[in-house]
Amino acid sequence: MKYNIVTYGCQMNVHESEKLAYICEKMGYEHTEKREDADLIIFNTCAVREGAEDRVFGNVGALKKLKKQRPNLIVAVCGCMTQKESTANYIMKTFPFVDIVIGTFNLPNFEYYVNAVKRGRQLELYSEGDLDEVIPYKRTSGDNAWVNIMQGCNNFCTYCIVPYVKGREKSRREENILNEIKGIIAEGKYKKITLLGQNVNSYGNDLKTGENFAKLLRDICKLDGDFKLTFMTSHPKDLTDEVIDVIASEDKILKEIHLPAQSGNNRILALMNRKYTREKYLDIIRKIKEKIKNVRITSDFIVGFPTETEEEFQDTMSLVREVEFDGIFAFMYSPREGTVAKEMQGQIDESVKNRRVNELLKLEKEIQERKNNGN
Ligand code: SAH
Ligand code: SF4
Cβ contacts of residue 151 below 8 Å, gap of 6+? Predict the structure, then answer.
């Protein structure tokens, strides 16, 4: 019996899929790259933008024929999209051939669902569960090992669905993280360790035991072993001087930082509920560049947030020009059900968003070309 996993979205989802892969192999399934050969096909979905959701609908729909030819094929849709009850219901109604529809929080019960389908072939319903950190992973990302340090997010940026589908911030205990990393080092297969969290800089705040991100980084670097350490994502409002100093001083930490700015305009940043200004962001960038030699800085931007004017978009362009990032991701704003921004007046036309995103990406390309030519 074979399984195939289709993963959408962020690195955290890639890592969640490693958890699913472990569960599949424990049940006796073997991995296959070919969807047509699989007896169990899992879609691990992303809800951050509408485009990602549409791709899932298209790819799930395309399985109807395969499922007709091979009725014993099990199709599962899980992850952030199906953590939303309305989307889970929509999938069950629109694609009745899908056997399992479960949210992120229910992944630890995946084996139970597959067995239930095998027994009765009935559709299992979305339900709430608890995130369980004890399930091991089948690591599938080459010489990089992902390590989750926290789940969820408390920030409620007004455009973002993540806090609604992933819940509030919950940090793992440092001791558990260090033990996982010791195991990774002992395996001897991994050169790089990447810590994952929606906002790694607020690691430990919920534990109230004095644990924090700078200390965690330092304690990981103290472990014996030949590895490089990196992490994502950092929220500018929580990136402390202490963390910058640790990155600068620890040889094991890669000199790279992903610091999403989202916009270069103060009115839009306030509407986004990002809790920093353009000036504060530039101040942090200045500190990073001063303290960390040859640092690579990357960022995320959203264009066409509700009410964004042409001048305000130009503030984003000028921020990108000023910082000369080593890479950016630029997204057209996508209204997400249940978020504050979706209900805002002044939604921007798709054509305008499209033009702005292309303009921003063109600028980014020019900057990269200039940098590559050493200017
Ligand atoms: N926790 C991380 C990443 C969250 S999602 C952070 O705070 O940076 C990854 C990126 O998707 C975000 O940085 C943002 O640029 C983008 N994004 C999130 N919601 C979006 C939306 N509704 N429309 C367009 N882009 C969005
Ligand atoms: Fe979303 Fe903001 Fe949390 Fe990032 S910090 S996951 S953008 S709410």
Answer: 131, 166, 167, 169, 170, 197
